[in-house]
Amino acid sequence: MAQPPYKRVGLALLWCVGVPLSLLLVWVLILLPFTPGVAGLKQARAAKASILVAADGKELASFEEGLQERVTLAQISPHMIAALIATEDHRFKDHHGIDYKRTLASVVYTLGGDAQGGSTITQQLARNMFPEEIGRSRNLNRKIKEMITAVKIESAYSKDEILEAYLNTVPFLYNTFGIEMAARTYFDTTAAKLDILESATLVGMLKGTNYYNPVNNPERSVQRRNVVLSQMRKHGMLDDKRYDSLRKKPLRVSFSRQAERSPTDTHFTAYVRKWLLEWADENDYNVERDGLVVHTTLDYALQEAAMKAVERQGNALQIIADVEWSQPDGGNAGSAGAYAGMHGSVTPFDYFWRSKGTLVNAFIRETPEYKKAIESGDTGAVALKRLKTDRAFIARLRAAKTRLETGFVAMDPETGHIKAWIGSRDFHKEQYDHVVQAARQPGSTFKPIVYGAALEKGFAPNRPYRDAVTNIKAGDGTIWRPTDMSGSSGNMMTMREGLVFSKNTITAQVMQDVGLPGIIKLARDLGIRNSKLESVPSLALGTSPVTLLEMVNAYSSIAAQGQYRKPVFVTSITDRSGKVVAHFGDPKSEQAMSAQNSADLIDMMRGVINRGTGTGIRYRFGINGDVAGKTGTTQNNTDGWFIMMHPKLVAGAWVGFNDNRVTMRSSYWGQGGHNALLVVGDFFKAAIADGKVDAAAVFPGGRRPAPVVQEENPGDIDEEAGEMQQEGVAPLPPPAPEPDDMENGAEAPMDGERAEPSSGLPALPQPLPPSAPPPPEPDAGAPQQQRE
């Protein structure tokens, strides 16, 4: 106070500025050793790929095959570089890692309520290269580490090297990193070919990749793109006329998520990958570099058993389809072993292709090759004729249409944990997932839900109905008459018998008494929550498409005494040091139906296995445990289903072709009790033999049945598909001849081949006959009768 006034003010200011600066300097010196050194900058951090592991810790897949392709600065469009510098760091060439003017301005704006970032391109590169060392939390500690590292980077790299490193590491969602993969993902081009609008759009995403995502938020993306263009105008990179022209142009995105499958991938790991990428985007993790360990619910031994069952039974069923469709009489070989013996001497599906010319033409017209030919100016007749003579194209078409597919999934009803998941017979040939993507008609596998709704309404399992064709009036006044393959006896039958013997006549009457709203509600409560359920009478017979996962989930709810649990495929995620960063736990259960009614329904479904359409589980596979289930078959043998409940495990399979116009030919092998049942039975037999499933386990109130003699066929029960015949409506006429079919000027047969006017599709060269594979072991019993 003895000092003159001006000195007192000066000293006060010195203390106010000098003390904080001194403290900041001490803080920087403390943090300095905790930031990457120059040697580390040169080598960068050794990235560690995230991995997916089974419940026992066995590695299932990794993310080391990431979506990143490094390019040099010369391979990046100048528009991209200009847009980046103008928007993110226009003094980039002038500073040494920190733009002090921008940093101070961002502090002032932020204190005034307008939060702004002050990071330079170099600081952003520091975050991209060293997210763990610098930290993820938005605080002053992270910002100082970021600044220190930026200065070190500037001392180790040239400006061009910094730009190149930044543009190769910046994230752009969908597990894409770097400008090259971003260009391919969002615009189907390369980094070198990005135009000014595409460059501005990608630079605009850097402020918030989710918020300004041009795929999900196009309006925000356009607004942000125009901000980037205005920055380019502000800094002399665009004149006013060019800017006004560009900002009015629409957003043109050509989005294509890049392939990221590794050789170890399966449908299950692909499904988890997709989920994990979204989780990582939302939680600021890099699945390629952060070394996450994703703990899944998959039981590796059960997955192996499922893979073998799908391969063994899928191959056997493919052979049957090949032979039956190879000749006019359908083969009539009897057992699967007999078909295997014939397979080497026939041309698979030869009769199918020769007898279905109109359908073949429809197949061709639906291909991208045909559509491309039309777009290029060809007429339909010319395009069709040319493609029919393209042997490679025809070979691909035949292979795709006639490949039998199978989906399989198993889950623990007590926890909801997925234990096995097979989406197709070969993931690398067919990525379409028949567990969670394919929605198909479930046929009679839906019937237990109808009977469950009846039990919930107070009906007793022994409630009587007459086995007779009944007129059912739909909401639009249409009359429907459900029938059964075995005909109607006119006798009284109980609800229990109606389910055991899969009687459409009985199920339809139960549906009438219960009402569609109650059936749909129970279906939703049990687990069919994504697929649309049509409120029509035929819903009771399984005509409304659903996914296999939904159906197995519904059966799991029944097996769990009526308690629904959402399927769980990941339990937790840990970082590279073993710290749990996310825990998903067991889902809360919801009471979908009463425990007593679920026990009654399980008891009714035991009869399906003991004396109904699912007896193959006993006599083919010798499974004597307390199990229950249901088969399903849809119209024209299009879909075969079987789902089986064990107290500790529920598993289901679907069998069919991707195109539902291709079906199993015979009514015997087209039934779920003779195709999908083989997959589930094979799986359960192996799981029991390996001790993964307790054969002695019983449902509450149940008991283990008496042993049965394997391969002692008690006689098969036919199952009618789930379509209802409409009364008074004539069948659809056959399709009219097409003007561009074979008889109207199509090509002559190829050398050495026979002309087949009814087909319009030339035969392929026949390969050398392979040696006949041995008959599949689980299919020892031959069918008693072959039907077409």
From TrEMBL:
Statement: the UniProt record of this protein carries the keyword Protease: yes
InterPro entries: Beta-lactam/transpept-like (IPR012338), Glyco_trans_51 (IPR001264), Glycosyltr_51/Transpeptidase (IPR050396), Lysozyme-like_dom_sf (IPR023346), PBP_transglycosylase (IPR036950), PCN-bd_Tpept (IPR001460)
Pathway: Cell wall biogenesis; peptidoglycan biosynthesis
Keywords: Carboxypeptidase, Cell membrane, Cell shape, Cell wall biogenesis/degradation, Glycosyltransferase, Hydrolase, Membrane, Multifunctional enzyme, Peptidoglycan synthesis, Protease, Transferase, Transmembrane, Transmembrane helix
Region (Disordered): 719-788
Signal peptide bounds: none
Biased amino acid composition, Pro residues: 764-778
Domain of life: Bacteria
Cellular location(s): Cell membrane
Entries under Pfam families matching the protein: Transgly (PF00912), Transpeptidase (PF00905)
Low complexity bias (residue ranges): 779-788
Family membership: In the N-terminal section; belongs to the glycosyltransferase 51 family.
Protein's UniProt name: Penicillin-binding protein
Protein source organism: Massilia frigida
